[in-house]
Each structure stands twice: as C-alpha cells, then as structure tokens.
Amino acid sequence: MTNTAEYTDPRLDAPLQGSEADRLDSGCFHCGTPLRGSVFIRRDKSFCCAGCLAVFELLTENGLGDFYRFGKAAGVRAKAAPKAEEFGYLDEPALRRQLVDYADARQTRATFRVPSVHCIACVWLLENLYRLNPGIGYCRVNFPRKEVLVTFENSKVKLSEVAALLAALGYEPQFDFADAAGRRRAPVSRRLWLQLGVAGFAFGNIMLFSISSYLGLDAFSGPALRKLFGWISLALALPALAYSGADYWRAAWLAVRKRVFTIDVPIAAGLAALAAWSAAEVLTGRGPGYFDSLAGLLFFLLCGRWFQQKTYDGLAFDRDYKSFFPLSVARRNGRQEERIALCQLQAGDRLVIRNGELVPADARLISGPAMIDYSFVTGESEPVEKIAGDHVYAGGRQMGGAIEVQTVKEVSQSYLTSLWNQDLKERESSLETLTNRYSRRFTKMVLAVAAGAALFWSLRDASRALGAFVSVLIVACPCALALAAPFTLGTAQRILARRKIFLKNSSVIEALARVDTVVFDKTGTLTACGAGSIAFRGRPLQEEEEGWVRSLAAHSTHPHAARIAKVIGGKHASQPVRSFFETPGCGIEGIVAGHEVWLGSAAWMESRDVAVPAPATTSGSVVHIAMDGAYRGCYTLAGALRAGAEETIRRLSADYELALLSGDNERERERFLELFGRSSPVHFNQSPLNKMDFIRRLQAPGRTVMMVGDGINDAGALKQSDVGVAVVESIGAFSPASDIIMSADMVPRLHEALRFARSSVRVVRLSLVISALYNVVGISIAARGLLTPVICAILMPLSSVTVVGVACGLTTRLGRRLGGEAMPKGEARP
Amino acid sequence: MIVILLLIPLSIMIAAIFLLAFIWAVRSGQYEDTSTPSMRLLLEENNTKKDKKENE
Fold first, then answer.
1. Confidence (pTM)
2. Are A310 and A210 contacting, i.e. CB atoms less than 8 angstroms apart?
3. How far apart are CA A271 and CA A259, in angstroms?
4. A150 in helix, strand or coil?
5. Residues A151 and A138: beta-carbon distance below 8 Å
6. Which of A136, A192, A193 should be substituted to probe chain B, the one whose Cβ sees the most B Cβ atoms within 10 Å?
7. Pick from A383, A329, A694, A287: nearest CA to A519
8. Among A19, A174, A256, A525, which is least packed by CB within 10 angstroms?
9. How would residue A84 be classed by pLDDT, with cut points 50, 70 and 90?
C-alpha cells in the first residue's frame, strides 16, 4: 500500500486565483453543488458539506488526489459518513450468503449495485478502493450496469464495512430485496456470442472450400478433390448446426408440440431440408451440397438475433414492490434498536420509522403523530395525518419525525403486496408478432408451390421430382423474413433510446403501433411534481413580508412549504427565524424580524381565532397566512401541467381515445375535463385496483391500451395494459414494472414517438414484401429444377443484405424526423 | 496439387486457433462489458500502473 504516495496536483496546493466570490461561484470542490450558507474550507478549497470534505481528505491522504484531475466537481455529493453498523444486517449469514457471488474461508467476492456511478472519475475511484482499505483486493466496475465487483479478505474487512466505505464515498450501494431473494441475472449474451463465433467460423471456412466449386474446380483436378471438399464442409457445418442452431431446433420443437406456429418452424424446416439434402449429396458423392448457404444462413440469423437483443442493463423493467422496499428496518428490542433484514420481519415486531422512510408492512401506529405520504400507493399527493392506534398501510412514507409502529401482518401479506398477487391477464405473448403472422401465410404458400413442383415433375420426369421439391424448400428458407423485424425494430429501439425512451425489448414497438387508447395518470405524469404555479390571493404582500414568509417556509420539509419557499425564494435573503414550531398536518409558526408569522390550513387558522374568508372555488391546495394574529391572504398551489403536456393531449386526442385516472382528489376535475374533452373518461380518487379494472374494462372490447404512469400505484395498471409506460424524472431512478421507461421530458413528444412506432412497423412490412419478391425469384428458379449451389449462394446473402439495408436505412431516416434532442451516440445508455 | 493436402489442414488449424481464442475471450467475460474498458484505457497512467504491480 502506498499511503505515502506523493501527490502533486497544482490545483490542490496552490491557492485558488480570484476573489472570494469567484470561489463560491465555482461550487463545492468535490461535488460541484453551489455553495451557500455554511461552507467548509480546507487547503483553500471550499466544500458544501462535511461529507464532501471527509471524502476529499480521505482521498488526498491516501494518494488518490488524482481523482480531482478528471474535471471539476467529479465527485458525488456524500451524505454524512454512515456508520458500518447501519449496514450491519449485511453480515447476517443468511442474507450475506444471498448477496455475495463467491466466498471461501479467506476471501469474498461481491457485486454491489451503485447507481450513482456516472463518469470516468467514478470508475477510477472505485477501481482504486484497495488503496483506501488494505483488506480490499481487486475491484472492477461495470459501467453500463452500474455495478462494482469487489474482492476482499474476510479476516480484514467485513461486507458491511465495504458497503459503508462505498456509501461514505457517495456511492451508496443499493440492494434489492429481489436480489436477496436469490434472483440473479444470468449472462444471456455469452452463449449468443459463442454461437455467433462458431457459425462465423463454419461460414468463413466452408465458403473458402465452396468458391472453388463455383468456379468449376473439376476441370483441373477431378472429382476426388471435390469429394474431399464436400466432406470437409460437412464436418465444419455439423458443429454449427448442432451448437449455433440449437435455439432454433428447440424453439421449433416447442412450437410444434404446443401446436402454435412461429417463424422458428419454417426456419428449422428450411435448415433441416438444406442439411439433409446437402449431406445426402456429399455422402453419395453427387455434389458439394449447400453447406456454404447453410452456414451463412445460420450466421445471418444469429446476427439478427444479436442485433435485436439490445437490453438496457442499467434499467430494471421488472421491478416489483420488493425492490421498492428497504432491505433492512430498524426494530426496537426493548430499549435497544437493531437493524434487521426485511425478510426477517415478523408480525408483531416494533419498528422505528424515521423521516422519509417507508412502512414496510401493514402496521398499527404506537407513537406518533405521523404524517403518512401514500403517494406511491394511491397517488394522493396530500400526506395523511395518523394518530397513535391508527392503522398504517405498507408503502406509506413517513414525513416528519420518527414514529414507532407495530406490524400486524408480515410483509408478504400486506395490502400493497396483495396488489401484485392479483391475477393479472397473461400478457399476449410474443407469438402474435407481425413476422409470425406473415410467415404462416408464407409457409403455406411455399409448401403449395413445392408440392406443385413435385407433382409437375413427377408427371414429366419422376427422377427430378424430389429434387425440385427440396429445392423449393431450400431456397424459400425465410432468412430475409426472419431478419426484417429484428433489424427494423432493433434500429427503432436504439433511436428511441437516444431520446431517452427505453424499451424493454424491440417487440414493444409492434405493440406501440397497435395502441388505440392512451390512459394517463395525473400526478407525476401530466403534472410535474414540485413545480406548480403559485397564486397569491388577498391584499398583495409587501416585499419584506414576502421575505418573512419565505424564511419561515424554508424551515419546514412539508411539500407545500418547500414549494412556496422555492417559488418566492429567489429574490429574498434568508432571515433568522426564532421560536419555530411545526404542528404536523396543520401549519408552521415562527418569529421573523420581530413579527409572528403563521402559515397553515384554514382549520388551524380558525382554531387560533383567525377569521378565514370563505374560499372562492379553487382548484389546488390552499395555504393561509396570518401575521401578528391577523389574516393576510393565502397561496393557492396548483399542480402544474408539464410544459407541452397540453399540446400532447390535444394532438393525441385526434388519433387516440384518451382517459385520465388519478388517485388524487377531485379538486382539479374541471381543468382536466376541459383538457381531455367532455366525452373522455376522467376519473379521480382511483385506487390502484380501480385503475387496473378500468384498463381491463377498456381491453374487453378488444382495445389496445397504453398506460402512462409513474408510481407504484400505477403498477397494476401498467402491468395490465398492453404497453405500460413508466415516466421517470431521471433515468435510473425507481420505476415500477413496465414495458417502456421514459424520461419525463419526453412526455410532450409522446405523439411523435407513437407515430414513429407506426412507421417503423410499416418499414417491417415493406421489408417483408422485398424478401417475398426475392423468394418469388428463387422459388421460380427452384421449381423449374435449375437451382445450383452458386445461385443459392448468391441469392441468399443478397436478399438478406437488401432487407437489412432497407430496414436500417429507412428506420434511421424516420428517426431523423422524430423530434427531440438526441443524445450523442455514446451516451445513449441509462 | 498434392500440396493442397498440406495446406488444408494448416488453414483449418489456424482458423481453429482463432476460434479458440474467441471462445476464450467470451468465456473470460470480455464481451459482457464493452464500454468500461474503453474508459479504463484513459486511466491506466503512472501511479495506477505502479500500484497494480505492487498489489499483485
């Protein structure tokens, strides 16, 4: 270990140039957060908080100061250094076993998910962890997956300490309950790469031996060499058929057994016909066979599969409530408090829930008062007040001080959990894709032509009948057919991803194109959280009065207060507040500049003998203000529509049926009725179950429904709908299970995205027509009994290349017309 | 033309060596994460290298 490493970054030791103000402007030296209020200064660098300063010191002391060379503000804002005990539950043998990848007596290897990894400096720092703790060995970051693999020695460091070190650096590891339940993603792509390699190897080598036969080798060397080449081709093709083609054989066999028809059936049939005929030719010494085409076909098919298999590892499309819950909870054991893993929680346990934490199971409140924010469960944006003895449902988030609850049910039996155990409609499987429908017709036609050709030849020259029959099957192998969809949809998927619309898989585009009904959630989807407009009613506030309100409001964490402070905050300096007191759910009070200022609900005001005028019809929440005991007016907070949301709704309503579902109360009904049109269904006070049922009712007459939502409360509806779209403020943030994860700033462009999906499917159709044309040419040659390996070897790649070219080219062109800022290619990952 | 009997096994053998190298690369996980190594390339400098040797 080189703790003494000389560190010579001039930026660190030389005093910064410029005035004090400049230095403040440049933000925290570690994380770049703008500096205000208390600033920590060390070695002429300013830091926004003790956490960032601690990381800076830790890094420079251990010779990792190079970190700051990667650019200004490379770091992640670090919270106050967490204690190792906080992660103590990780050392619990049962949990530990599920979280680590490998462990023996001496060392352990564990993979941590660290969502805050965002740049090259993070990679560098995390891969140099071993310099900070001698017990840590090898570290490797997987950037797209946002994972870090850490190897450490058991005798020197514990799993919880590694997690605490990561958290201290600002890279708090995330553990999923789902991880702990033993669900791990397998490396699917490894197998595909190997299959591709084997097929490519066979293709290239067989091609070398085949070229001679295209050019008429026999003329020079006689049939002996031709036979030898045939045998070598056979030997090379066998492993490709067995290994690279394995998935096609299996899929076709499964389809036949289930009596469904998929594209895999004609592919497997074509491959089998090609292989059997070629093997027969080689074994009987009649010709070289079609092994070159066979291997090429396999190779192209696998290329298509590889192209289609674009997944976004950083995103999780299948999260359930478990990943939303914390991995550990604080259980009260007599006077003591201990952290236990959530899976060890039992009914009857007493838990301590702090500000911002979730209640993990249905529980009874023991000591309060509690303000429970159910927005994730019901969509209702107002926190609900609970007093001791009240029932608190799982999924509620405590706002305010610490409370104590006693669980009455286990996690798996709570109300929220039961939502996920609903019997959901089995999602229409990917069997009904365009390609499959098309290939069914195609196969019938091919079989008819093959039979016709066989019949024709059996009447004229019986010896050629079988040849003609097989030739038709060989040349009609639906290679181009199988490539049209993967390349078009794969390209479309990549284009959408660059506009921050991430699709679970490329077949979602087909579903998108079929959508005829769009259902919106309100809060968080159409309205942006925390950015609403604020209107003041009453005699206008003086400049300095507004400053007092702002200073007071800034002291509370209540969402309304925070919003008021944010909106009017810009122009006022913060003033000291004395005797601040918050009555949860009612209001806040304090003395600013010698004046007593109250902010709160009407009921609270009236309880303090302040007359509140009768409310005019308002939409939105109201916060009343009183100064020195006299009523001063009120703020109306309207949930603001996202910029461009109105326009989107208007444009969508021309082509689609629209509906609005909100868990919130009805105070904004009029406004949304106007927006959506009087005839559209607009429902408020919807529980998650209501939402799901609504979608199901829409689907009953055969509609294809797209649900756009954001919270856990939409999870059921997202799952039930044909296309579930989860809207997130930042990519990588939590989102419920869905087909599409979309950045919130793309909501205004929903219309264009839907149109793009429709045109992409039209491109697939066009590609299918092109491949059909090639097939007509090929089949007409084959049916006349004229097919030779050369024709086959030219026709097959030519048709594939044209189809791939048309598919990718047209889709890319369409993508250019799709609006929105495209991210540069390299950043098109979550 | 007899030389071809020597050349064929030779060419197949060379190709097979490349196939094996590819299989090894995939097995060792080199295809699992294709973007972090490109970033790491920019990091391998002075003291990082030195330290790695010490660590090994």
1. 0.69
2. no
3. 20
4. strand
5. yes
6. A193
7. A694
8. A19
9. low
